[in-house]
Design a protein that fits this description.
The complex is a heterotrimer of chains A (about 270), B (about 270) and C (about 260).
Chain A (H helix, E strand, L loop, with lengths): L2 E9 L5 E10 L4 E5 L6 H6 L9 E6 L2 E2 L5 H4 L3 E4 L12 H11 L4 H15 L14 H13 L5 E5 L7 H16 L3 E5 L3 H7 L2 E6 L2 E7 H4 L3 H6 L6 H8 L9 H16 L1
Parallel strand pairs in A: 3-8, 3-9, 6-7, 7-8
Antiparallel strand pairs in A: 1-2, 1-4, 4-5, 9-10
Helix pairs in contact in A: 3-4, 3-5, 4-5
Chain B lengths: L1 E9 L8 E8 L4 E6 L5 H8 L2 H4 L4 E8 L2 E2 L5 H4 L3 E4 L14 H12 L3 H14 L15 H13 L5 E5 L7 H18 L2 E5 L3 H7 L2 E6 L2 E6 L1 H6 L2 H4 L6 H9 L9 H8 L1
Parallel strand pairs in B: 3-8, 3-9, 6-7, 7-8
Antiparallel strand pairs in B: 1-2, 1-4, 4-5, 9-10
Chain C lengths: L15 H4 L2 H17 L3 H18 L3 H26 L5 E5 L2 E4 H27 L2 H10 L4 H29 L9 H32 L18 H26 L1
Helix pairs in contact in C: 2-5, 2-9, 3-5, 4-5, 6-7, 7-8
Classes of the chains: A alpha/beta (about 270), B alpha/beta (about 270), C mainly alpha (about 260).
């Protein structure tokens, strides 16, 4: 399912112009990282996707739906949303019931609900905690639970707002695996984050926001190496890109394996 | 300045050690980093170093915990405030709520300590300058972003001029800019005021750049300690769920040297 | 431009009224309560409002905000008192009839009188709240021995409430994003309760211990004698004025009680 943002502006009631003439099209199955400093308009943009905010100008299309014609609850069938703070949504007595809440709202049959809950919990690795109380889990795991609750809604599009905040390396790796699995299932993923290295490893496309506008939009391998443009948007380039440039290597790879290959070739050439 | 000898701690009504026979000596003026997976005991250690264990959290203690050669148990939080400052992760909960502007919020701690008015004014300006929030002085602390709130929280503690500053994941809500400001402010404090800074963090590159010494925890036990480069580049960090920087990962595949780089500068030197 | 702070109705300003010591204004609002209870008739009460409270509001440059607040607070009472008293108070001077009910002038006047008492009583308090930073009011009180812990609770309650509303909004967003339909009948309203209130309460409970720790870290239980950032300007004449205001209030009440007994 494609997502299209057509010439969208958004002004908060306070008068702040948070989005200013944004255009973007995200194709089915893409993994898109949205980067930018705080206040650049990242969260405002994605809140338009499920109707939590309505554009002051322009249109947002989710497949063949104009978001203006649908409630947030209806849009929830197409766009899943992981909020930054899991504690803003957890309220059920058990982990399994929490995950079942979304699918039940969608009117799924009990058999479907059960299957979806089991799948989602397996994906995030919380099967063993299915009967625990959500608040007996530590905060990083509550985030995984909230993610499972979003995944179980089986929406074609998923928005993740800062999924790696407060996670340790194990949690970060887990979330990386989950993103990869969802990508393989063909879901569209839109990830807002400050974690550039996470984007370098998991996103194919990067959209950088600056002062309510799309500053740059393109393939991750092309955008993340443009240090000057990233600097303008106060985004620090990935570590390996910085290293490659510090060494004055001709190419700037995004993952360790590519870096190692590029480095070896570069050293060989330099010896000659 | 703070000394732990075979110090163990159990939270009330738990059987599992939160801290397990930790021996640690923190001299005055040191910038100490604490790493570890979630649940490794980082927060608990922060509470112990700032006196909240045992004065806020009850539970059982074993071994020695002393501040300036006085057993921590003989001190109380009222006396420790102004000596030891604690900053934690969630910015919202650190805003007292009893004052209406940022300047007054920072004053709150000083008022409690009975600092004279003229001195209070100077200290507030200085603290705001350190974390770069002068322009927020007259705003309501509830009307600013999470990242700005966290800087207000840090300034509020800094203004109290503690001899020891303990920070439990203070930058998890901050963007890269905010993180840089906080670390830069802390390192300036250590070098100009000789105060002791203890910080629990996941952001390894920053720890490696600024800390004098790093310790790693797992399951409440001290597993590694030493220079940031020695500790953070070691393979053990992968097993402890701490992870390594991309610089270390790339270098590990390219160099046979025992001491791998952790920061950009170190990596540049090692790979040139 | 007048601005609001947190959940207060304070209108920032630098007028003479703003600069009066909070306790002076507190004494004045006390006198207003005494006037409301003791003044004998409508002309006296309206005189008090027009000749004392209004000039003070003009002096404080909060006239519009003050009148608006008075209207908002007293307006609904005025309307319902005028209707109820007019129909049910009784009296001989019938103004009009509505079926079996008669509306009398005496009733109308009784309603107006009651509304005017409210206007004077609440007007004084509104004047105090709109021209005084609540933190400074609490400071003035704690400097006179009012418990600091109670002052803290009052001030945080004022400020935390709006952020509670913000959090409720986020929770509502989060649950709608999970397919919770908001705009449906009463039966479904009940279904909304748990998903909305659950996170709000659980979240706040979890916040409590962290907030308590943060407060300790700020030296809240430090044994030191507390100081304050702002000095509250006071003067001998204001102190005298305060005693006069209190004496006038007590005098009025005593006179009222005395004449009622006589």
């Amino acid at each position: 399912m494609n997502l299209r943002v057509e010439n969208v502006s958004f002004r908060y009631p306070s008068g702040v112009l948070a989005l200013d003439g944004v255009n973007a099209e995200i194709a089915s199955g893409e993994v898109v990282g949205i980067l930018g400093e705080n206040g650049a308009g990242k969260t405002t943009l994605v809140k338009l996707f499920n109707g939590l905010l309505r554009p002051s100008q322009g249109k947002v299309w989710i497949g063949d739906w104009d978001t203006a014609d649908h409630s947030t609850a209806a849009l929830a069938a197409r766009v899943g949303f992981l909020f930054q703070n899991p504690d803003d949504q957890l309220f059920e007595r058990t982990v399994a019931r929490e995950v079942a809440y979304g699918p039940r709202n969608q009117g799924a049959s009990e058999a479907q609900v059960k299957r979806r809950v089991a799948q989602a919990l397996k994906l995030v690795g919380l099967q063993a905690q299915a009967d625990s109380h959500p608040y007996d889990l530590p905060q990083p795991q509550r985030k995984l639970l909230a993610l499972a609750a979003t995944i179980a809604m089986q929406t074609p599009i998923l928005v993740l707002d800062e999924p790696t905040i407060g996670q340790d390396e194990v949690g970060r790796t887990t979330i990386g695996h989950i993103v990869n699995s969802l990508h393989q299932m063909g879901r569209t993923l839109i990830i807002i984050t400050h974690d550039v290295d996470f984007c370098a490893q998991h996103a194919q496309r990067i959209l950088v926001m600056l002062q309510g506008k799309v500053h740059v939009d393109g393939a991750a391998s092309e955008v993340l190496i443009q240090t000057k443009i990233l600097d303008e948007a106060e985004v620090a380039p990935p570590q390996l890109v910085r290293l490659a440039q510090a060494l004055k290597m001709p190419a700037a790879p995004l993952n360790v394996e590519d870096f190692v290959d590029e480095y070896k070739q570069w050293r060989k050439k330099r010896k000659k | 300045m703070i000394r732990l000898k075979k110090f163990s701690y159990w939270y009330p009504a738990t059987e599992q050690h939160a801290l397990d026979r930790i021996t640690l000596d923190i001299p005055e003026g040191q910038f100490l980093g604490i790493v570890g997976a979630n649940g490794a005991g980082k927060s608990t250690l922060c509470y112990a170093l700032s006196g909240f264990v045992p004065h806020f959290y009850n539970g059982e203690l074993e071994g020695e915990l002393s501040f300036d050669n006085t057993p921590m148990a003989e001190l109380d939080l009222g006396k420790l405030a102004g000596q030891v400052g604690l900053v934690f992760q969630n910015p919202f909960n650190q805003i007292s709520g009893a004052r209406f502007t940022v300047r007054e919020e920072i004053a709150f701690g000083l008022e409690n300590l009975g600092v004279p008015r003229a001195e209070m004014r100077d200290r507030i300006e200085e603290a705001m300058e350190l974390v770069n929030i002068q322009e927020l002085a007259e705003r309501s602390p509830f009307s600013v972003s999470g990242g700005q709130q966290q800087r207000i929280a840090i300034a509020s503690i800094l203004a109290m001029q503690p001899r020891v500053l303990v920070l439990d994941e203070p930058t998890s809500q901050l963007d890269p800019d905010g993180t840089r400001d906080v670390f830069a402010a802390l390192s300036k404090l250590v070098s100009t005021r000789k105060i002791t800074v203890i910080i629990a963090e996941h952001k390894l590159e920053w720890l490696a750049t600024f800390c004098d010494r790093v310790i790693a925890l797992a399951n409440g036990r001290l597993r590694a300690e030493g220079s940031p480069q020695d500790v953070l580049s070691s393979e053990q960090m992968l097993r402890l769920g701490v992870g390594r920087t991309q610089y270390s990962e790339a270098a590990a595949r390219l160099l046979r040297s025992k001491q791998l780089p952790v920061t950009l500068e170190q990596a540049k030197k090692a790979l040139q | 431009m007048p601005s609001m702070r947190g959940g207060t109705i304070y209108v920032e300003g630098r007028s003479g009224l703003h600069k009066l010591h909070p306790l002076t204004k507190l004494a004045l609002s006390g006198l207003c309560f005494a006037c409301a209870a003791a003044l004998p008739g409508l002309p006296w009460l309206l005189g008090m409002f027009v000749l004392v409270l209004m000039p003070l509001a003009i002096w404080g440059r909060i006239t519009r905000a003050f009148l608006k607040a008075c209207l908002l607070v007293v307006g609904p009472f005025l309307l319902s008192l005028a209707i109820i008293q007019g129909f049910f108070h009784g009296g001989d001077t019938v103004l009009f009839q509505l079926g079996r009910f008669t509306y009398t002038l005496e009733g109308l006047m009784a309603g107006l009188l009651f509304a005017a008492r409210l206007l004077v009583a609440l007007g004084g308090t509104l004047l105090l709240m709109q021209s005084t930073d609540q933190a400074q009011l609490m400071q003035a009180l704690t400097e006179r021995g009012f418990p600091a812990r109670i002052a803290y609770v009052v001030l945080t309650a004022i400020q935390i409430f709006p952020s509670f509303q913000d959090r409720a909004q986020v929770i509502m967003d989060a649950q709608q994003a999970r397919g919770l339909e908001l705009q449906t009948g009463a039966l479904n309203r009940a279904r909304l309760l748990l998903p909305m209130v659950g996170p709000l309460i659980l979240g706040s409970v979890m916040d409590v211990s962290e907030r308590a720790m943060a407060l300790e870290a700020r030296g809240f239980s430090s044994p030191a004698q507390k100081t304050s950032l702002h000095s509250l300007a006071d003067s001998a004449s204001q102190r005298t004025l305060r005693w006069l205001l209190v004496a006038a209030a007590l005098g009025l009440l005593a006179w009222r009680v005395g004449s009622a007994l006589a």
